[in-house]
Design a protein that fits this description.
Blueprint (H helix, E strand, L loop, with lengths): L3 H10 L3 E4 L7 E2 L5 H10 L4 E7 L10 H5 L14 H26 L8 E8 L2 E8 L9 H40 L9 H19 L5 H20 L2
Parallel strand pairs: 1-3, 2-5
Antiparallel strand pairs: 3-4, 4-5
Helix pairs in contact: 4-5, 5-7, 6-7
Length: about 240
């Protein structure tokens, strides 16, 4: 891709007026991208002016922003239990991870010259039609694809939430096991002679352990276990 000074020098030597414009492309592209082919066309048609324009990449299209984080936060992965404090921690850890990756990524991009053009359009007006040549320098193609880092971040968040969800399940199961052990050693529920009483007893246990460990335990999970124990307890009483 020829630079601005070269274009101006060549056109001045050929006695052709030159004007730099905003990038707009052309209506008809010459097969050759050599500027001298365009100059020949201009002279053959007694055209006195040639226009040129550079296109530079938009740096913002490559930078990571907070918008990239928010687009992936609490979106398609928001199906986990609402009472999980562990999940909340996962989101906080993801934010820290994202900020670090954003810093590394954007620092790398800040060292690049985004004023370096990727496209050059040189053209003249022939019967109201922009006829010209286009030269390319696709240097941004060598950059890591932003979508790749976004996909990596997406995968990282998914893994963090999967792990958080599993930790949450494990913690809840630990608490349930503690409650079941309590049922094995307690005789308090022996006086709960109907399901209503047993249900209220399970609600009390669920609230007690939920408040203590800050994870919601549903009383029905306890009630299912207690009903099994109640049946065995009644059977055993028959033989006592």
């Amino acid at each position: 891709m020829i630079n601005r000074d070269e274009i101006i020098s060549i056109l001045q030597k050929e006695g052709i007026n030159h004007y730099e414009t905003e990038y707009c492309g052309v209506d008809l592209t010459l097969k050759s991208d050599n500027i001298h082919e365009l100059i020949k066309l201009a002279k053959d048609n007694e055209i006195k002016s040639i226009f040129f324009a550079y296109k530079v990449p938009d740096k913002d299209n490559f930078m990571l922003t907070d918008g990239d984080k928010l687009a992936r936060e609490r979106n398609e992965y928001d199906y986990y239990e609402e009472d999980s404090l562990i999940e909340e921690t996962a989101y906080q850890e993801y934010e820290k991870y994202f900020e670090k990756q954003k810093e590394i990524w954007n620092l790398r991009l800040s060292k690049l010259n985004f004023l370096k053009p990727t496209n050059l359009c040189i053209y003249c007006l022939l019967n109201g039609i922009r006829v010209g040549i286009i030269q390319f320098d696709p240097w941004t193609n060598s950059l890591p694809n932003k979508n790749d880092i976004l996909n990596e971040l997406d995968s990282k968040l998914y893994t963090m939430l999967e792990n958080a969800n599993q930790q949450h399940k494990n913690k809840r199961q630990e608490i349930l096991n503690m409650i079941y052990n309590h049922l094995d050693s307690s005789t308090e529920w022996h006086t709960c002679t109907n399901q209503g009483l047993r249900g209220r007893y399970c609600m009390k246990l669920a609230k007690e352990y939920s408040d203590k460990y800050h994870i919601v335990i549903h009383y029905r999970e306890i009630l299912y276990e207690l009903e099994d124990r109640w049946k065995k307890y009644k059977e055993n009483k028959k033989f006592m």
